[in-house]
UniProtKB/TrEMBL annotation:
Domain (PPIase FKBP-type): residue spans on this chain: 66-154
Name of the protein in its database record: peptidylprolyl isomerase
A Pfam family of this chain: FKBP_C
GO MF annotations in UniProt: peptidyl-prolyl cis-trans isomerase activity
Keywords, in A-Z order: Isomerase, Membrane, Repeat, Rotamase, Signal, TPR repeat, Transmembrane, Transmembrane helix
Its EC number(s): 5.2.1.8
Membrane-traversing stretches: 226-247
Catalyzed reactions per annotation: [protein]-peptidylproline (omega=180) = [protein]-peptidylproline (omega=0)
SUPFAM superfamilies: FKBP-like
Length: 292
């Protein structure tokens, strides 16, 4: 009897030990589920610092990494549910490409087409915008609430089959903030090194930047196949136009509205009459002399 009891107890201990060997500790579970994988996560997402609550069950297939999903979403700061800081009626994105914050990516991988859910991110350092935030909209380490609805999902895409057309374009919150700060710093430094011009210098620089009909070098530095010097070209052009205007005015090409105008034909007719009268007078004078 004693041997049977001891054997039974030993068997139970071994069985319990074998069973516990397949259970991931709580800390490891959190670490495991917070990493991306090609498998779908549990429908109800409840990680320390990230909670998802389903409002409407989805009737379509589950989202998978690489699919192109159309998502309707609104993002709020706690207490500002009536004023979202980001929203879209239909945003297309690739599931699991890592371009969004991690809390968004994790929640998206748990959803089905047609599903609507709310997601709260309390641990901003792990799942949100972190210490950097998105000034002045999202403060540092601010919790975020999101309402997401999966409208549709297209065929799965191979992530490595597409090249990034703009690999230097900042996409993550930290990269966007860094690019913004660098641009502001460069702008400030440029203003310090090159203060804005004033007075006559400003207008000289302004005139130099104008682009006249493709004849001169423009702001882009592109040059025409010919080159004209403005200091010589413009005075000559103005002189020619002025001379043409003066000649036209002098010879009657330009006249006051309503004034009597005689054109070249009128002058020819008048001249013809004068010549005829002159010949007649001369003929009569010669005839009188012959008669006498």
């Amino acid at each position: 009897m004693t041997m049977s009891t001891s054997t039974l107890l030993l068997t139970l201990v071994l069985a319990a030990t074998s069973t516990m060997a397949f259970i991931v500790p709580t800390t490891q579970q959190s670490s495991y589920t917070s990493k991306f994988s090609n498998t779908k996560l549990h429908e109800s997402l409840a990680i320390d610092g990230l909670v998802k609550k389903v409002i409407k069950e989805g009737t379509g297939p589950a989202l998978e990494r690489g699919q192109v999903a159309s998502v309707k979403y609104s993002c709020y700061l706690p207490g500002t549910e009536t004023k979202p800081f980001a929203q879209s009626e239909k945003q297309r994105m690739i599931v699991g490409d890592g371009q969004m914050i991690e809390g968004w990516e994790l929640a998206l991988l748990t959803m089905n087409v047609g599903e609507r859910a709310t997601v709260r991110i309390d641990d901003a350092a792990k799942f949100g915008y972190g210490e950097a935030g998105v000034p002045p909209i999202v403060p540092s380490n601010a919790p975020i609430e999101m309402e997401m609805e999966i409208l549709s999902a297209e065929e799965r895409l191979e992530m490595g089959a597409f090249a990034n057309n703009e690999p230097l374009t900042p996409r993550t919150p930290k990269a966007i903030r860094a690019a913004y700060e660098a641009r502001q710093s460069a702008k400030l430094q440029d203003e310090i090194e090159n203060p804005p011009l004033e007075g006559l210098d400003y207008w000289k620089d302004k005139i130099k930047s104008y682009y006249f009909f493709g004849f001169f070098e423009g702001e882009t530095g592109q040059q025409a196949p010919w080159f004209l010097r403005p200091s010589i070209t413009f005075p000559i052009a103005f002189a020619i136009v002025g001379a043409a205007f003066y000649v036209s005015l002098k010879f009657g090409a330009i006249s006051e509205r309503g004034a009597q105008v005689t054109d070249e034909l009128d002058e020819l007719i008048t001249l013809q009459g004068v010549l005829r009268d002159g010949f007649m007078m001369a003929f009569l004078d010669v005839s009188d002399k012959i008669t006498v």
